[in-house]
């Protein structure tokens, strides 16, 4: 029976940023080659974590970015341009989320409407 202090990694299973996938498995999951993943690292779209043995490990979040890059490259977009597009898409998504949070704060004092 597992101890209460050492769960089987349930928190890690839900963590999109936990580096759970080896390079080979990551490439297989997105239908690409390990070289493609290395190219994304060189273009600074993703920065895989390194295991104690020096092997690259990828998170689900990184795999989603890599899969999006693969879609763009498959459509004829150069890798560097695909990485730039994805970076801009991420920044836009973050800005839209921040804007929405500022417009509709979950907690805190209500903001007076114009003209009141």
TrEMBL record:
Residues 20-88 form the HTH merR-type domain. InterPro entries: DNA-bd_dom_put_sf, MerR-type_HTH_dom. Pfam families: MerR_1 (PF13411). This is MerR family transcriptional regulator.
């Amino acid at each position: 029976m597992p101890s209460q202090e050492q769960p089987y990694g349930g928190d890690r299973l839900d963590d999109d940023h936990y580096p759970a996938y080896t390079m080979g498995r990551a490439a297989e999951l997105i239908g690409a080659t390990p070289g493609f993943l290395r190219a994304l690292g060189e273009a600074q779209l993703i920065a895989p974590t390194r295991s104690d043995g020096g092997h690259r490990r990828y998170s689900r979040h990184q795999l989603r970015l890599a899969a999006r890059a693969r879609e763009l490259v498959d459509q004829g977009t150069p890798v560097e341009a695909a990485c730039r597009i994805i970076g801009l898409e991420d920044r836009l998504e973050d800005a839209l989320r921040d804007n929405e949070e500022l417009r509709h704060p979950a907690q805190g004092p209500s903001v007076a409407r114009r003209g009141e």
